[in-house]
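Everyone, describe these structure tokens:
***
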Amino acid sequence: MALPIMAKATAVWLVDNTTLTFKQIADFCGLHELEVNGIADGEVGIGIKGFDPIANNQLTDEEIKAGEKSPSHKLKLKFNAAAEGEEKRRGPRYTPLSKRQDRPAGILWLVKFHPELSDGQISKLVGTTKPTIQALRERTHWNIANIVPIDPVALGLCKQTELDSAVQKAAKKAAKDGTTMSDEDRAKLVSTEQSLHMSTEPKIPAAISGLETFSLTDDAPAEKKEPEIDADSLFNLPDADEDES
């Protein structure tokens, strides 16, 4: 169902200027009935100036009167030919001002630990632009010396489920394209849920396999010891009495 522009401001105007029920206003503006009730009580929408839907060609006076006469009447948004086919466009993710300074750190983390993600995926995850991502990939960003990679989930720039979904899509695309990945890169593609069930025992590198039982302690089985060497037997020096004679 199409909603009026400036829905909450429209609800404020309808509450102040009509006798429509809270449910009628809520259904028309896409709000919860309790939210409209809060507007009427002055607890919600404080400071919002009412937006006249009649003057702005969203409702007719006849439609409002019909709604006031019958509480079961559902208000219908006035047809606007100029708005036909216009839908909300999907743009970059909105990032609050308080977190925008953290975006480079989150992008650098994604570039470093998930190089398989495309610029488009990173852009959707943290709400940034491709030139910024490229600058961080090539380490030509103006502040690159002061940026420390930080998990964007920890920064609140995206959700863990969103990151896992993007990583899994990248893994499927890599498999479809026949791209070979190292063990380290493949480990990065494991989702958080899977990693929680993985063994915590460290794997021994192939280069040092066979040294598992090597120990520097005295626990090793005792071996046959070589006889101790006496210094006198090495030099076989004559006794002092023999020299005097």
